[in-house]
Write a structure and sequence with these properties.
17% strand, binds S-adenosylmethionine
């Protein structure tokens, strides 16, 4: 099938990508065991990482040529990127102005939330898998729970609302905490999202049989709360949402494995070293950095990006026999 002449990022299944996930670094200061080995990884060499100028040029192409309306900054840990506030100010100066969100582990956010909001950051997701210090140390291999909680509070004070929390439950580690995490989130006006653990860890330790499923999480929550399906349209959002005890508090579950939402996916992804991917689970990616550094025009880069998205597959097939985990781990793609 021939790609239509539209400027947008369309694929052969009729989806249109309007949400760009950009990884700012592959480095992280936690070692969550479902994501990264204790010793860390071989980080990308500095010269391979896109400069701020290169990133802003690509995001500019995305918003002016390709119809991207939402940009989410991620990593690795995006707060580790030097000059992040300045970079956000440049992104929010693009026209049409994209909505800019960030996914972070929250470490260091306590001091920076105000400056990030002032730079134009609209929203934030903070990853928090436990509210128990000992469990945090076991899961993330660092004693940083207090820093994350301080970061969340600072983000709230800075008005980065609604603040979402991402939680991954691991069997035998923190899977007893679903109810406690939801009580914590409701008490602080944070919106909790549970994410099913995905096969994206560098150590390839994911095991389908061990995974805590969306159904199990909902069962735990229903033992303590009344959950009513949210009537707000889901659109391309990955989370299925429920009102808790009649609302207004709510909870979401992202069942990437058992309840995939690929048919409504509106995402395209850019890695810190300039590869564009049509899916978190793609086995193929296209190097835009070589084009940038080779002197390609904005139109050429935009057209290459369209070609990549035109080739997007129907779904990731994680739950199917023969699924092949992508070569890059989550931390090097951008979660
Ligand atoms: N460092 C930032 C953070 O902690 O949010 C951003 C990057 S992190 C890769 C983004 C999200 O991916 C986090 O919420 C993390 O819990 C989640 N994540 C990482 N590995 C995962 C996996 N194997 N399955 C499901 N979620 C995962």
């Amino acid at each position: 099938m021939e790609r239509p002449a539209t400027l947008a990022l369309v694929d052969t299944f009729g989806r249109v990508a309007t949400d760009l996930r950009v990884s700012l670094t592959d480095r992280c200061n936690l070692r969550c065991t479902y994501c990264m080995p204790a010793e860390g990884l071989d980080w990308m060499p500095g010269e391979q990482i896109l400069t701020d100028g290169e990133l802003v040029r690509l995001m500019g192409i995305a918003v002016t040529h390709l119809g991207i309306t939402d940009i989410r900054l991620t990593g690795g840990e995006p707060l580790l990127r030097p000059g992040l506030e300045g970079l956000i100010a440049q992104i929010t100066a693009l026209r049409p102005r994209p909505r800019v969100a960030m996914t972070t582990n929250g470490i260091g956010l306590a001091k920076r939330a105000g400056a990030l909001a002032a730079a134009g950051l609209n929203r934030i997701n903070v990853s928090l898998d436990t509210i128990d210090r000992d469990v945090f140390i076991k899961l993330a291999l660092r004693d940083r729970l207090a820093h994350v909680l301080d970061g969340l509070a600072a983000a709230h004070s800075a008005g980065l609302a609604p603040i979402k929390i991402n939680s991954v439950l691991m069997r035998g580690v923190n899977d007893h905490e679903a109810v406690a995490l939801l009580r914590f989130a409701l008490a602080h006006d944070y919106r909790l999202r549970f994410i099913e653990q995905m096969p994206l860890d560098a150590q390839h330790g994911w095991n389908r049989a061990e995974m805590v499923t969306a159904a199990e999480i909902l069962e735990q929550l229903r033992a303590e709360f009344t959950l009513t399906p949210s009537i707000e349209p889901r659109g391309g959002a990955p989370a299925e949402r429920w009102l808790v005890d009649g609302g207004p508090g709510e909870v979401g579950v992202i069942g990437s494995v058992t309840r995939p939402f690929c048919a409504a996916c509106d995402r395209t992804r850019l890695t810190a070293d300039g590869a564009v991917r049509s899916c978190l689970f793609s086995n193929e990616e296209t190097d835009l950095r070589a084009l940038l550094r080779g002197g390609a025009s904005d139109d050429q880069i935009a057209d290459t990006w369209r070609d990549v998205m035109w080739g997007k597959l129907a779904g990731h097939e994680i739950d199917a026999d023969g699924f092949v985990q992508p070569l890059r781990p989550m931390s090097a793609i951008g979660g």
